[in-house]
Amino acid sequence: MMRKNKHGFLLVVIILFVFCSLNLPQPLTPMAYNSAPASGKVSKDFSADKAYEHILHLSEKIGPRPAGSPNETKAAQYLYYMLEQYGWKVREQPFSKIVGNANPLKPEHKIQVINSQNIIAELPGASPETILLGAHYDSADVSTPGAIDNASGVGVLLEIARILGQEKHQKSYQIVFFGAEENGLVGSQYFTAQSDLSAIQWMLNLDMVGTPLEIDIAGKTSAPPELVDKVVTLARQEQIPFHISRDFAVMTREGSQGGASDFSPFLDQSIPALGLGIAGRAEGYYHRPEDRIERVTLQSLDTVGKFIPKLIESVEVTGSGQKTWDSYYLPFQLGSFVVIIPTLGLRILFILTIFFTVFSVSRSFRDQEPFIQGNLKEYVLIGVGIPGAAFLASFLSGAGEALWQLLKGRVYLWQAYPGVFLTLRVILVLCALLIFLKLLRSLPQPKGGKFYWLIGVLTLTLLTIILGLYRIDLAFPFLFWLLCFNLFLYYPSIILLFIGPYFIYKTHWELLNSQQWPSFYETIHLYPVLFIVLYGLLFIPVLLGALYILEKGKRPWEQMLKRLLIPALLVGVGCVLGTGLIPNYSRANPQPITVQKVWTESEGVILRVSSTDTLPKSLLKELDSQETKIGEDKKVLELPIPSEKAPLQANVSVTDTGERLLNFKMAMKYGRDPYLVRIKLESKKPFKIQEMDDFVPIAKLPKKIALEGKERAGSYALLLERTPPHQGTIQWKIAAEGIVKCSIEVVFADQTPRYSINLPHISPDYKEVYQDVFEF
After folding, report:
1. pTM of the predicted protein model
2. In terms of residue numbers, what domain contains 300?
3. Are residues 75 and 210 in the same domain?
4. Cα–Cα distance between 774 and 560 in angstroms, integer?
5. What three-state secondary structure class fits 441?
6. At what angle do helices 298-314 and 153-164 cross, to 10 degrees?
7. What's the total number of domains in the chain?
8. Residues 456-463: contacts with CB under 8 Å, at least 24 apart
9. pLDDT in tens, 114-129
10. d(CA 257, CA 347)
11. 195 plus 320 within the same structural domain
12. Structural domain includes residue 250
């Protein structure tokens, strides 16, 4: 009975210790937030029907709106007209920006020229202090209507513009519809870099309207905690379900975009900002042709549309322009309540935990029980056995996936039901750790167990200090784990073993329920050895803690471990076999398929069907014919189709002026406007573009981006892309030491698909492509 009480008391102490450090946000100078409505109240006569009409016009009548396309220009003209009708002062902000690839996971040297425009509307009030509202109006691709992403945000914001334009206000308002968001927040980055932000009090961005609300606060820095608290309080009062996003993984802050949407560049400029979207993992229509008007519901438009006027009424910010705030706080959501550990609280907790660790280690040395209780052989065996078991458990966690990838002939297995798949992996890891624990206990090993505790504490302390020096909020999961590991010395409890890595679990849960999950899991597939090592390192403290409990715990853990061995083995095998029962794709999360009419100089026109995963057998069977070509990996299928007129005529000429300085000229006559022109240069020896026309404006080229081949795996490559408008003639001068291979690809929308795919669990994307390859 005493033991049960002690365990319960221990759990209460841990919870109290954590939440005693939690502080509700307090105002910071020079900002002040209150709930008093600003003078000049906003009319609450929001019409979801009117917002829906705007969404219908953008997504269905205009259609896909990729950056620089004629459809994006039509959408910009529509926004300009509607804002003027609502009494706003409107102007256009065109831009052409050169973007280099900043993603370390994709090291190819890629340079993009993005052309688009922002639509800026102003509604002056009695005071120059301004609230800025934003949404991007471009869509992800030439075949993506973008009803949810983000015609929904634009439609709601246009209706808000109508409401605001009905009466005079004390404050000034500004609405910005950003272009080229899907290309990496290009429009909002250009706006914040080129505009005077001194009058802006705070910024609110709408990206994908729906409920439950995602209150997005994560960029390279985070939204002010005071602003977050106000938005959360109002959402709770309005009884709107919501989720607070946060950069639980380094990828959000350190990524090429530095955030999820167009509010992030404002945070970079020290302007208070946050975004509203749809909480949860993106469904299968995200950035796909299925993102149509049928996805939009009047109820969600009405909920969010009525929430925003109340929000801009009630949030009062003192001062305008750039501000300072606590940006490394940690928010914790408990149902509809949010509590925050400020940076100061994190630092205090960090220092206290490190001091507690020093005290615990010194106390352990003062105990009569020695650390070294065995011979060298025993320490060598356990020193090799623990890391070996950890890395092997990490490797086996993907055993089920690897087996069924082979048997099913698939690359990915998780798209349809990622939550179920992840649960099976976790169970498999637990089973593997139980089995390896039993094997480790059968080895000759040191007695006493304090050695395990000391190594675990020192490992977690080192990791916590390294992360704490880099970014204090990232250190918190390991800080909490270190605290629990310290308590092992006083209470060797199984509760502490499982609760220690709690915030590591939480990180993965947040990832699973976010738009980052697909890219995170695909990265694991690209670098499996790296992730086996990383997760193996995380399993080492778990094994050390378990071995210490087996030595020091007063419960009969040894007998329990022996009884669990066979069940763990059976459950582990069942998880491996059960992985194959999980459907790869579903109607909600179908397999993306690209269907392209491809014109090549050598083969004429062919139909190319491809996917990042193996093509389904039903599709291969339906398209099978004597002339069908199927790739060895079964990801690409090609078959001839009746000849059609190519969407362009290209003429390429190259002359050598001496010393390997090549004059490159390409004349293209377009039958209609292309979506994208992509040119890739490759050579086994270095090369550099010395002169170039406006295909990539050299005058606008950032100093850190060079028009030269980047070495990778023994060859040099440079990829150039440009959105519309496109020139009919491209002229360059290229200095090359060897033969240069030039691949040209021009992408068009396919308005009349030759072959229409109507199979379950498949999402077809139709395009037309002109390709040519030559060497000089």
Report:
1. 0.89
2. 44-341
3. yes
4. 69
5. helix
6. 50
7. 3
8. 456/485, 456/488, 456/540, 456/541, 456/544, 456/545, 456/548, 457/357, 457/360, 457/361, 457/482, 457/485, 457/486, 458/361, 459/540, 459/541, 459/544, 460/485, 460/541, 461/354, 461/357
9. 999 999 999 999 999 9
10. 28
11. yes
12. yes
